[in-house]
Design goal:
Length: 507
């Protein structure tokens, strides 16, 4: 079935980035397509820590920028980062106007938390450690009350329809069958790629579907090799893994193994070292055959259950009482710094296609994201995409050609391949083997094809970066290269590179 949106843009994704874009476009009509009911199955709703903004009297955007650039390890886009971080206080005010209730002191001032690698207290939170839930609940309510926003739930975007590098529509899969939305403006806001890995903190549906949509449309990607692994995800059989926030280590919890040995005690910064350093230490200790635990039993009299209600509940659901027992943890894929290459207005290299939120690569995060900068980026850039779109004159709409319908995606076959080759530690042989295994899946027309396409692009980008930088750690290239550079990649290029690696079949 083809449905003409009457010139309304289509936003794919109902997390923070998609909702902010839709609300900022109001009263302009917009169609918001989301796989899950609005606000569900979005990383945004799971965010615990908060949203970074330089609101303190001792803080300003230049200090926030310095911390962001240090975390990004040489490849942030400084101009874009400066602009996004300068917009943070206004974004907090905007979220407040949209109905988000941030935690405040008795005088009504917003409370500011401290997180690793931030030099000032600047983490704005809601409901203690339930920030994402508070934000998404308020924005979903607001979107429901906004007549210009038509929400199309239980619809999965499967392909962009593109004619001469220009968007003409979106093919969606719904319970009633394929649905084509004819439109000349599309925003991809589909979140991250954690679901491509065996262990991840992301909702299972976050497996790079937006990257697959854009890649098949011919769009350019940037910095795809940079995947952040969170060092302390709850090690349980559930998928995704629940996150045990850095704030618990911030309060004094330590990492120990099954013998009670505090294996990070002699590392600089110990448990409060940067996220990638802790993730590598935990990964290596596990690879040496140990189990790893976060011990939060003795936090100087702190009432753990009261300070961390969400985390305590998550642990207890898994049968662990953090007050009396060490918490089993492991690293898990958490955040994708790379994604669809966009300019400051969120424009991609395809006409009529924008991207924002985690799926986009603005250059803010470089090789490693500073904690709590991602909700900020989604909120700020969602608004900027709306402005950029609104400023663009309507183009002559073209009829979308009938697309080829597509099988539903399933990343299960890709997870073991990507996890062993493109996890916390990588090397050439492992990455080459993964490219060889992913290529046939990517070019077949089957459930694993789109996830394998995204996995293959990550692997090719990782193979090309012969250095260790930020979250990208190569055991065969442990140091920085002499010059810091960002990377770009298109699907054609990745497929050609993979073909060269795959041995010809022997007759
Ligand atoms: C456990 C956890 C804790 C975090 N804590 C923090 C934190 O404290 N601070 C911080 O700044 N960041 C945090 N992050 C990161 C941050 O939450 C995300 O980067 C950010 O919320 C991404 O927002 P988004 O709107 O881009 O994507 P999401 O919020 O993931 O939304 C994506 C949306 O797209 C939909 N979708 C996906 N594919 C399709 C498709 N094909 N068709 C239709 N719909 C589709 C999904 O259903 C979802 O609605 C955390 C992440 C996790 C997983």
């Amino acid at each position: 079935m083809v449905h003409d949106t009457d010139g309304a843009p289509v936003i794919i994704g109902g997390g923070l980035a998609g909702l902010m874009t839709a609300l900022a476009l109001a009263p302009q009509p917009v169609v918001l397509v989301t796989r899950a009911p609005l606000g569900c199955e979005a990383s945004s709703a799971l965010a615990q820590g908060g949203i970074a903004a330089s609101l303190g009297a001792d803080d300003d955007a230049s200090l926030h920028l310095a911390d962001t650039l240090a975390a990004g390890d040489g490849i942030c886009d400084q101009n874009v980062a400066a602009a996004i971080l300068a917009a943070a206080p206004a974004a907090i005010a905007q979220l407040t106007r949209l109905g988000v209730t941030f935690d405040r002191d008795a005088d009504g001032n917003i409370l500011l938390g401290l997180e690793a690698a931030h030099s000032r207290r600047r983490i704005v939170h809601a409901g203690g450690d339930a920030t994402g839930r508070g934000i998404i609940r308020a924005l979903a309510r607001k979107a429901g009350e906004t007549p210009s926003i038509t929400v199309c739930e239980a619809a999965t975007a499967r392909r962009l329809i593109v004619d001469d590098n220009t968007v003409t529509g979106v093919l969606c899969q719904t319970a009633q069958g394929p649905l084509v939305l004819a439109t000349d403006r599309v925003v991809i806001a589909t979140g991250g790629v954690g679901g491509l890995f065996l262990h991840s903190t992301n909702p299972a549906g976050s497996f790079g579907q937006g990257i697959a949509l854009a890649a098949h449309a011919g769009a350019e990607m940037a910095d795809l090799e940079f995947v952040q692994f969170h060092p302390t995800a709850l090690d349980s059989s559930s998928y995704p893994q629940k996150l045990i926030s850095e704030a618990v280590r911030g309060e004094g919890a330590i990492l120990v193994d099954e013998h009670g040995d505090r294996f990070m005690a002699h590392e600089p910064g110990a448990e409060l070292a940067p996220r990638d350093v802790v993730a590598r230490a935990v990964w290596r200790h596990m690879a040496a055959g140990h189990r790893v635990f976060l011990d939060a039993r003795n936090l100087g009299g702190l009432d753990v259950a009261r300070r961390f209600p969400t985390i305590t509940a998550l642990c207890r659901e898994a049968g662990i009482d953090p007050v009396t027992q060490p918490i089993p943890i492991r690293p898990a894929a958490h955040y994708h710094m790379g994604g669809i290459a966009v300019d400051r207005g969120g424009r991609t290299s395809v006409d009529g296609l924008w991207a924002c939120g985690e799926v986009a690569c603005t250059g803010l995060h470089g090789a490693n994201r500073l904690a709590s900068n991602s909700l900020l980026e989604a909120a700020v850039c969602g608004g900027w995409v709306a402005q950029d779109m609104a400023a663009m004159a309507a183009s002559r709409r073209r009829q979308p050609r009938t697309p080829v319908s597509n099988v539903a995606s399933d990343p299960a076959a890709v997870r073991p391949i990507l996890s062993s080759a493109a996890g916390v530690l990588r090397d050439r042989d492992g990455l080459r083997a993964a490219a060889g295994a992913l290529y046939p899946l990517a070019v077949a027309r089957e459930a694993a094809s789109d996830p394998a396409t995204v996995g293959l692009m990550i692997v090719i980008a990782a193979l090309r970066r012969n250095e260790s930088r930020g979250a990208h750690a190569r055991s065969d290239f442990p140091n920085h290269a002499n010059s810091a550079r960002r990377s770009t990649l298109r699907l054609d290029d990745a497929l050609a590179a993979a073909r060269d690696l795959v041995p010809e079949p022997v007759n």
